[in-house]
């Protein structure tokens, strides 16, 4: 009984530590500057949308929102497309050959972004590709491919090998088996992988900071425009942070079952 009580107390403290910053950001976005910095803190206040009006009046933020949406969707779709083909190929290989390739993919997955961002920046400056959307899409697709392969591999491993054998007996070619058997069977895993890639790309800061320019800034970089020499615009900053988080929270809730399953399988088999 005591252990169970301690477990729930610990769980409540953990939830409080995780959710309180989120609560503070959302609540502050609806406060005036006076209420936001009142001492002692104001728990009951008259909400205002003035901070959101400030954010929507910022043209740079709206452009960044569009850039983040385009880059996240296209780069994630590209990463999942490449990752699906690679994961299917790996899933059909003998365990001895597959193990070494999985280690290599894992090493790419955990490698720091600095290893490839600097060479990519140098190459982009040489060919005049900085401040281009396609550069950012290619960079994020490259970053997400190892993750997509390792996660999709767990879903493809769950598909019975007998399905592939039966299709081959019927005369199906390898690409037909991949397209008509494996992709439909792993549809939930593919959607979960796509959502996770979008989440990672949407929130990524370092790559965007190095490779973007005025026309291609994404949200994590654009939000720093609220940190001015005159001070931090806390109201607008928290409103912008709420708008950035909102689409990803909705997506996460919609696919949480598949995402948790994919992350669990990845942690067990990865």
Reported for the largest beta sheet, the result is: 2 strands, antiparallel
> Quick one: how many beta strands?
2
Rg computed from alpha carbons, rounded to a whole number of angstroms: 23 Å
Residue stretches low in confidence (pLDDT < 50, at least 5 long) are none
The chain-level mean pLDDT equals 85
Tell me which oligomeric state these chains represent.
single chain
N-to-C terminal Cα separation, in Å? 36 Å
Overall spatial form:
globular
Give the ordered list of helices and strands. Answer: HHHHHHHHHHHHEEHH
Portion of residues in beta strands equals: under 5%
Tally of contiguous helical segments: 14
Helix amount, in percent?
over 70%
Structural classification: mainly alpha
Strand order of the largest sheet: 1-2
Q: Can you walk through the features of this model?
A:
A two-stranded antiparallel ribbon has the order 1-2. The chain contains 14 helices and two strands. Helix 3 (50-56) crosses helix 13 and helix 10 crosses helix 14. The two termini are 36 Å apart. The protein has 270 residues and is an all-alpha fold.
Short description:
The chain is an all-alpha fold and 270 residues long. It is built from 14 helices and two strands, in the order H-H-H-H-H-H-H-H-H-H-H-H-E-E-H-H.
Can you give keywords for this protein?
270 residues, mainly alpha, 14 helices, 2 strands, 78% helix
Helix/strand layout:
Elements: H1 2-29, H2 33-36, H3 50-56, H4 59-91, H5 95-110, H6 114-127, H7 133-157, H8 161-169, H9 174-185, H10 187-203, H11 206-211, H12 219-222, E1 227-228, E2 231-232, H13 234-254, H14 256-269
Antiparallel strand pairs: 1-2
